[in-house]
Design a protein that fits this description.
mainly alpha, 434 Repressor (Amino-terminal Domain), 6 helices
Length: 83
């Protein structure tokens, strides 16, 4: 089953899920981009934290698919290390 088919089935079962997914789409996209950049750089969360001066909690927040948006400076520091 493709991801979009799974999401469609799940949203039929849970009416509020589509709204939740739609609301969190920008944060989810940021999280996926950050995680992909880190993986492409071949780095662990711990290595990014150490090299960027960010905490593991900051890294977890960046890579979390929902929640609050991080500060721009946090994203900038993360991405600078992953280049």
């Amino acid at each position: 089953m493709r991801p979009d088919e799974l999401i469609e089935k799940l949203t039929e079962l849970r009416p509020g899920l589509k709204d939740h997914l739609d609301r969190n789409a920008p944060k989810r996209n940021l999280a996926l981009t950050c995680r992909a950049a880190r993986k492409t750089a071949g780095m662990t969360r711990e290595q990014v934290a150490e090299r960027s001066g960010l905490s593991l909690a900051d890294i977890d927040g960046l890579e979390a698919p929902s929640g609050s948006f991080p500060e721009r400076s946090t994203v900038t520091r993360f991405m600078a290390v992953c280049r």
